[in-house]
Design brief:
The chain is an alpha/beta fold. Helices cover 23% and strands 31% of the residues. The protein folds into two domains: 4-271, ANL, N-terminal domain (Rossmann fold, 3-Layer(aba) Sandwich), CATH 3.40.50; 277-370, GMP Synthetase, Chain A, domain 3. The protein has a seven-stranded mixed beta sheet with strand order 8-7-9-10-11-12-13, sandwiched between helices. Strands 2-1-3-4 form a four-stranded mixed beta sheet, with helices on one face. Helix 3 (91-104) packs across helix 4 (122-134).
């Protein structure tokens, strides 16, 4: 029987060793997010139905469903829109992702990865997977911390995967390359940052700085990004003993990302999730583009843009701003946005907040902040 082993462990040497052992035994691993409250943990366990659990107290059997032959990883989607799914990646997919990304980053024998993102998310786990598959040296920390980053750099780390909120707290020059994902990158990102596009279903990033990794195909259908590549998930796992896994790919192997985008000058440009688009006065507004414009105003620490129901406009563009200095007035924000974007993109209201709710990988949870009005 192929086990599905829930790893209820912090990122560290024991976590990495248990992944290696599972893969040597041709079992699959499911990294559980240790930060989840009890009810959310139970929901994920019910969704995945692992056959074993490994935690600080040891290892024990769990009533669950075996893995299919070839399965290597079960990982929860980010859950920004509703209940997370459990994506199943085969060993072939994990290996394809590790090899293609390492080739693009020109990873060599003198390189060393620093893993510090939550391994329960594919962006964090993929660093561990790359190191295992390619035999690259790996330094880990249970969570991101600027001191841990500096220490890893002094110990030889040359590569790290981060989210934008972490990037703002470090000296980027201490490593050769920073792989940046999870949320919109800063406008003034350092030259050694590579911005990735991907998702749980693609086993991490598959497009680097707008260019697809080797083996990755991109099609734009009715404005929606579709992908086909060896890194794609096998299916969404059903935790029911008599349930059936659901393959979201079409008959030709294409996966619909539900992200709007276009190929411009040979590079993929992603506008955002279809569910995030704001239709105001009949015009479409992509929150990412408005956030990027507002963030170039002086004194803006963070910004989140979302639509709010409006009797006149259908949806009105609102912006929630965490100031780093004097809070701007609405007229200033509107004029600044209109200097680079169409007038309908300018917010009709702004709100001062202390923080933007985000996922563990830095994605703004727009539904949460908009619901507070």
């Amino acid at each position: 029987m192929r086990e599905v082993i829930c790893l209820d462990l912090p990122l560290g040497d024991e976590f990495v060793a248990r992944v290696r052992r599972a893969w040597d035994d041709q079992d699959a691993v499911f990294p559980l997010d240790q930060r989840l409250p009890g009810a959310a943990r139970q929901t994920q366990l019910a969704t995945v139905a692992p056959t074993r659990i490994v935690d600080a107290s040891g290892e024990r059997p769990h009533t669950g469903r075996p893995a299919e032959d070839g399965d290597a990883l079960v990982v929860a989607t980010s859950g920004t829109t509703g209940r997370p799914k459990a994506a199943v990646l085969t060993m072939e997919a994990v290996r394809a992702s590790a090899l293609a990304s390492s080739a693009r980053l020109d990873v060599g024998p003198d390189d060393c990865w620093f893993a510090c993102l939550p391994p329960a998310h594919v962006g964090g786990f993929s660093v561990v997977a790359r190191a295992i598959v390619t035999g690259t040296r790996l330094i880990t920390a249970p969570r991101f911390d600027p001191d841990a980053y500096r220490d890893a750099a002094t110990r030889g780390a040359t590569l790290v995967s981060l989210v934008p909120t972490a990037l703002a707290r470090i000296d980027a020059s201490l490593v050769r390359t920073i792989v940046l994902g999870g949320a919109r990158p800063p406008v003034d990102r350092p030259a050694n940052c590579v911005v990735t596009y991907g998702m749980t279903e693609t086993g991490s990033g598959v497009v680097y700085d707008g260019i697809a990794l080797d083996g990755v195909e991109i099609e734009i259908r009715d404005g929606i990004v579709h992908l086909r590549c060896p890194m794609l998930l096998r299916a969404y796992r059903s935790g029911s003993p008599d349930g059936h896994d659901v393959d979201p790919r079409d008959a030709d192997g294409w996966f619909c990302t539900n992200d709007a985008g276009e190929v411009r000058d040979g590079r993929l440009v992603v506008h955002g999730r279809i569910g995030d688009v704001i239709v105001t006065g009949g015009e479409k507004v992509w929150p990412d583009e408005v956030e990027a414009a507002i963030s170039t105003l002086p004194g803006i620490a963070e910004v989140c843009v979302a639509g709010v129901p409006d009797p006149e406009w259908g949806d009105a563009v609102h912006a929630w701003i965490v100031p780093a200095g004097e809070f701007p007035d609405l007229a200033e924000v509107r004029e600044h946005v209109k200097s680079t974007l169409p007038a309908w993109c300018a917010p009709r209201a702004i709100h001062r907040v202390e923080a933007i709710p985000r996922t563990a990988l830095g994605k703004p949870i727009r539904s949460a902040i908009a619901s507070e009005l």
